[in-house]
Amino acid sequence: MTHSALKAGQIGRISRIGATQLAILLIAAVAIASIGVVSSPGPIGLAFLAAGSGLAAAFVLLTGSKLLARLKMGNVAATIADFVENDASPSFIVNDDGEVLRMNGAARSAYSANVGDTLTGAFRNTFANAGGLIFRLKTKAQNGSVAAEDLVTRQGHLRVAVHPMDRKTYLWRLEPIGRGGLNGQGSDGLSLPMLIIGRSRTILHMNEAARELLGGRVKSLDRVFTDLPVESGALAEATTAQGKAKVVVSEVEAGVGRTALYLLPAPGPEAENSRLFFNELPVALVKVAPDGVVRSFNKEAANLVGRALVNGAHLSDVMEGLGRPLSDWLAETIGGRAVQTTEFMRLRGDDSEVFVQVALNRITDDGEPAIIAVLSDATELKTLEAQFVQSQKMQAIGQLAGGVAHDFNNLLTAISGHCDLLLLRHDQGDADYSDLVQINQNANRAAALVGQLLAFSRKQTLRPEVLDMRDTLSDLTHLLNRLVGEKVRLNLSQDTTLQTIRADKRQLEQVLMNLVVNARDAMPNGGEIRIETESVNLTEPLDRDRVTVPEGQYVCVRVIDDGVGIPHDKLQKVFEPFYTTKRTGEGTGLGLSTAYGIVKQTGGFIFVDSELGSGTQFTLMFPVLEEQSAPLSEPVITYDAPAPKHGDGVILLVEDEAPVRAFASRALRLRGYTVLEADSAEAALKTLEDESLSVDLFVTDVVMPGKDGPSWVREALKDRPDVRVVFVSGYAEDRLTKDQASIPNSVFLPKPFSLNDLADTVHQQLH
Fold first, then answer.
1. If pLDDT is split at 50, 70 and 90, which confidence band does 374 have?
2. What beta strand segments (E) does 256-320 contain?
3. Secondary structure letter of residue 266 according to DSSP
4. pLDDT for the residue numbered 699
């Protein structure tokens, strides 16, 4: 052990001898010495005198050592105090009893405490539970280590640290570590009185301006306002340090269920200060005359609304979308008759859609009635609402289109089927033959139109396969060149690194043809259509046009033209069915809605960008196929179907639509089959109760009243497991996929079907 350490240890041990022990030692020395003095001269008296002198000498030595130790410790404290005197952070040297021994200049200016006061008293106005904080940190520091905590006070964020100097003395240091509060600034730095209100409407915090206005800390709103509740933007009577006063209350969300109430001086002699507060308030406020003319507005309102907001402008020139005259709402507010005090409106001006939530409150301005309009940005809220409404609308239209398509498919099956039967009885030289051909062709056109409805509602039957977009576009280029004509040039630019996708090639070609035809029609004087492909890797989700594209790899196809463009307010409607910018008779309005449905059903995304007079760009994004072990495309095998044999099968035909059933039964009988008819699943099962009846094939509709097609077929196959099945339906095949997978030897034939389609499908199932 070093000399300095030994000396310090001795001082520590001596300093631990208390004043009581020294007093006892002194009394004992005096008593023993007195006995020696008063005793008769001799050895005993000298012994008592010597003992008393020894004790007295020990008392003097110990007392001197203790005074030396205290002096040394005082020098240490003084040295530390001199060191922190110029520290910008408030510092206190405190003894074990919490008494302030020394404090630096920063502590003297920031805290109303003097040497000799307690630390608890010094911290009382800074921390909510000063005594608990001091005890907690002192306990942690008693083991010789530094204890610290970060706390939030009305002055901001403070780090309170305790440094042990010895077992009886501690250095307390308070270091500011940042400013908290609204918008990243301390709330006390605001010149406006502010109250932070919790969910229970209790006052959680007041800044210094509010304390000065109200005369101190207040814990409940009923101690501040005469009448509750208070309305944002309205006048309220508050109890201040100078008595009752009128203030304008502004309410701002402060997060986590909290609300900030700002108290503005009411219009009066302090008009200049009121205007200053009004302009600096972090809430968009507009003062409006009863007739709707803007009188004044603050800086936040100007930032939100833009250049259209000027003094003297009418409020109806700034915003729109109320659904009734704005003057009526203003008159109701002035008269106190307004039922709806808050409305959502759209700002006029530029093409961007900005929505605001407007709350009107009646005030008195220079003795005259006026209105304070409190504005808040509601664009995000209205965007979410528009997404929901759009989703609901598309879903409703899709359900309607699917239902209409199903009924139309039944009608078209009957029309085109009976037309096929008539064509069998007429030669090309007959006078009626051309009329029948016209009926047949228009029935097919109607079937294609119904197919577009199904495509939009994403209920058409898809035949997906693995595709290479480069090959698909290369094969389609010849047809696209014929579609665009001579005035328009077609330019194809391919990315050589494209990966494969999974899609229905026929439907994808229809999408590309629709987009190219629209681009051609947008350039009546000619121009260039560019088709570009690109491999895109999204490292993070892409938010665009109210949808989110997940991260991953995509094949991107762009169709770009230099045409007339699409107005901005029409861009969100171009994918809606029956909406078209073309003249009557030039388009059905189903082209882009069909493309939309096909792309969405494939799992892709479609976007449109356009500038009026500068052209339009459609962007298609298809997810890359992860499994690429399959061949790029299934080879198409063409063969000449053998002529059906006559009379080589018994067919049970189950169809609830009488015209369709009549056509199908006649068509099959013409091919030589024996046909048993049933108008429902129950009737079909009743027919099959005859065990002597031999049936080779079930031809059944999928959707019927009572039991549907798959249900009765599964029941019938229990006794006749070898019978094959043909399902027919006006709905898409995906409605049948799960049921059909559980039924062996079954195929699907979509409506409308022709005589040959039905005969060929039946023949392939039987053979």
1. confident
2. 258-265, 284-288, 294-297, 319-320
3. P
4. 93
Peptide bond into 229 cis (omega under 30): yes
* Residue 570 dihedral angles phi and psi, to the nearest 5°: -100, -10
- Confidence (pTM): 0.39
Pairing of strands 501-503, 156-164: unpaired
> Residue type at 608?
V
Element (H, E) at 569: none
Phi, psi of 375 (to 5 degrees): -110, 140
DSSP state of 526: -
- For 195-209, how does the pLDDT look when each residue is reduced to its tens digit (9 = 90+)? 888 877 788 878 777
Q: Which residues of 317-351 are buried (b: 16+ CB within 10 A; e: fewer)?
A: bbbeebeeebeebbeebbeeebeeeebebbbeeee
Give the containing element (helix H, strand E) for 136: helix 130-141
CA distances, 624 to each of 471, 497, 618, 621 (Å): 15, 12, 19, 9
- Residue, of 177 and 137, whose pLDDT is higher: 137
- Taking a C-beta distance cutoff of 8 angstroms, is the pair 295, 289 a contact? yes
728 in Cβ contact with 704 (< 8 Å): no
Q: Provide the strand spans (E) within 308-411.
A: 319-320, 342-347, 355-365, 368-377
Indicate the DSSP class of residue 643: P
φ, ψ of residue 694 to 5 degrees: the values are -105, 125
Of all residues in the chain, the percent with pLDDT exceeding 70 is: 69
Residue 120 β-bridge partners: none
β-sheet bridge partners, residue 558: 532, 619
The first and second tokens of residue 34, run together, are 């007195």
Question: Are 85 and 106 in contact, with CB atoms under 8 Å apart?
Answer: no
What pLDDT is stored for residue 309 in this prediction? Answer: 86
Q: Give the span between the Cα atoms of 185 and 692, in whole angstroms.
A: 92
Beta strand pairing status for 355-365 and 465-467?
Answer: unpaired
Q: Do 700 and 728 contact (CB within 8 A), yes or no?
A: yes
Q: Which pLDDT score is estimated for 619?
A: 93
Longest CA span, the chain: 172
Q: Which residues contact 251 (CB under 8 A, 6 or more apart)?
A: 232, 259, 260, 261, 262
